[in-house]
Amino acid sequence: MIELYDSQRAMRNMRRAAMQRGVVAILDVGSSKIACLVLRFDGADRGPETDGVGPMAGQAGFRVIGAATTRSRGVRFGEIDAMQETERAIRTAVQAAQKMANIRVDHVIACFAGADPRSYGLAGAIDLEGHVVTEQDVSRVLSARDLPDYGDGREVLHAQPVNFALDHRSGLSDPRGQMGMRLATDMHMLTVDGAAIQNLAHCVKRCDLELAGVASSSYVSGISALVEDEQELGAACIDMGGGATGISIFMKKHMIFADSVRMGGDHVTGDISMGLGVSTATAERIKTFYGGVVATGMDDREMIEIGGDTGDWEHDRRTVSRAELIGIMRPRVEEILEEVRARLDAAGFDHLPSQQIVLTGGASQIPGLDGLASRILGHQVRLGRPLRVHGLPQSVTGPSFASAVGLCLFAAHPQDEWWDFEIPVDRYPARSLKRAVKWFKDNW
Q1: How far apart, in whole angstroms, are the C-alpha atoms of residue 399 and residue 320?
Q2: Do residues 40 and 411 make contact, with C-beta atoms less than 8 angstroms apart?
Q3: Does residue 29 contact residue 72 with C-beta atoms inside 8 Å?
Q4: For position 422, what pLDDT does the model report?
Q5: DSSP state, residue 57
Q6: Which of 224, 227, 270, 282 could form a disulfide with 405 if both were Cys (CB 3.0 to 4.6 A apart)?
Q7: How far is it, in rounded angstroms, from Cα 27 to Cα 422?
Q8: What confidence category does residue 48 fall into, taking pLDDT thresholds of 50, 70 and 90?
Q9: Side-chain-facing half-sphere of 143: CA atoms under 13 Å
Q10: SS3 for 15?
Q11: CB-based burial of residue 21 (10 Å sphere; 0-12 exposed, 13-18 middle, 19+ buried)?
Q12: Which residues of 263-293 are buried (b: 16+ CB within 10 A; e: fewer)?
C-alpha cells in the first residue's frame, strides 16, 4: 500500500514537472484504437494554484497542438495482451502526434478501460476541538477511514474525497478555513487489477516515455461527456468502446461509482464476421455503413453487397438484407445493455435524485442505439459528445474520443486524490480492514 502511495505521488510530481515544461502527451490505450494528443500549457495556469480541493473547473490553460490515432494492436478487453504489439502501436501514435506538434514529448498521462474495476465508498471522521480546518486536518480525516480488504494483486487507481461534512453541515467541497468541532469525509476508492497498471507502465517505459499519471477511461469519459448539471445532479456515463464498456456514475461533480463490462463494439463486429462468413475488416465496414439495431419494413428490401476478396466470384458478390444484419447485431447490443443495467442496479443508481444516462464511445454511434438503451435501461438516455477543447482537430471530436478529451481535462485540472495530502504514516497500513458499503444510497 505504501509503495502504491509513493508511486502515485511520484506520478503527481512528474505531472507537475511536465506542466512546468509546458507540454504533456495524452494517451488513450483502447482495444480498437490508440489515440495520442499533445497538450501545450500556457504559463498562466501552470502554478500549484491549479490543484485545489474540489471538482475540475473549466478547461482554460491548455490547447491541443498535436493529435494522432492508430489502430490498436495487442489490447483486449481494454487491457494489454501482447506487449510488443502495443508498444509498436503506442510509438506510432506518439511519434505522429509529436510530428504534428513539432515538439518532443517526454511525459504521458494514460487511461485504459477494463482491468476489473471495483468501487468502494469509505467514511472517516475526526474531532477538531473547534479550531479552523487546516490541510493537516484534511490529511487526518482522509487517513481515519476504514480501508476495505480489497484483495491481493489489486491497486488503488483513484481515491477521491467526494464530500466533507463539518458538524451538521454536509455537502462541502472544501472545508479548509472553516471552523467546527467535528470533520467527516466520504471517499470514493476505485481499485483495479494491479497487473493491468504495471503492464501499461512497463509498456510506456519501453517507449522511452515517463508515465505522469493514469486514470480510468470510465472516469475521464464522464468528465468530458456529461454536462455540468448532469455531473452535479446525478448521471451515469456509459462509454461503449471496442473491447469494453465503461460505466461511471457522477454526483455533486464527483465520480461515486465505476465499473466495466467486458464487451464492446468489437464483439458486435465479431458476430457479423461469423454470421456472414466475412473477414473482420469487411464486417467492420458493413457495421459502420449499414448497421443498426431497429428494423423497419424498408430494411427487408434494402440489400447490402457484402463484397470480399476471396477470388470466388459467386461468394464475393453475395448480398444480405439490412434486416438480417440488424438481426445479427441486435442480440449482442442487447446483451451489453442488459449487463450495464445489472451493474447500475447493483450500484443503487435508482436512488439518485436524477437518473440521466449518457452514451458515448465509438460503439454508441450505432443508429437507433439510444432508443434501445432507453427501453432496456429504463431511464432518459442521450448520446454524448466530448466537450470542445482548444485546438482539437475536427477529426477527433466524435464520441469515440470522449476518454481522450476527458484525459486532457484530467491532466489540466486533476481532482484531489488521497495521495495529494501528507497522510500521517503511522495511520496508514494498520487501520482495521472492513468492507465498505455503498454509502451514497444513504447519503443522498
Answers
A1: 29
A2: no
A3: yes
A4: 63
A5: -
A6: 224
A7: 29
A8: very low
A9: 21
A10: helix
A11: middle
A12: bbbbbbbebbbeebebeeebbbbbbeebbbb
Cell matching residue 439: 454509502
How far apart CA 217 and CA 214 sit, in angstroms, is 9
DSSP state at residue 311 = S
When comparing pLDDT for 420 and 151, which is higher? 151
Picking from 118, 138, 286, 248, the residue whose alpha carbon sits closest to that of residue 193 is 118
Using CB atoms within 10 A of its CB, is residue 208 exposed (0-12), middle (13-18) or buried (19+)? Answer: exposed
In angstroms, what CA-CA distances link 399 with 221, 237, 363, 394? Answer: 9, 12, 9, 12
pLDDT digits (tens, 9 = 90+) for 344-364: 998 888 888 888 999 999 889
Least reliable range by pLDDT among 106-120, 209-223, 240-254, 425-439? 425-439
Residue 33 forms beta bridges with which residues? Answer: 71
In angstroms, the CA 116 to CA 246 distance is 10
Q: What is the pLDDT of residue 436?
A: 30
Q: How far apart are the first and last CA of the chain?
A: 30
What's the pLDDT at 315?
63
Mean pLDDT value across residues 20-33: 87
* Mean pLDDT, range 115-142, rounded to an integer: 84
Full-model pTM: 0.85
Cell 485545489 locates to: 52
145, 439 contact by CB (below 8 A): no
Q: What is the torsional sign of CA 352, 358, 363, 365?
A: positive
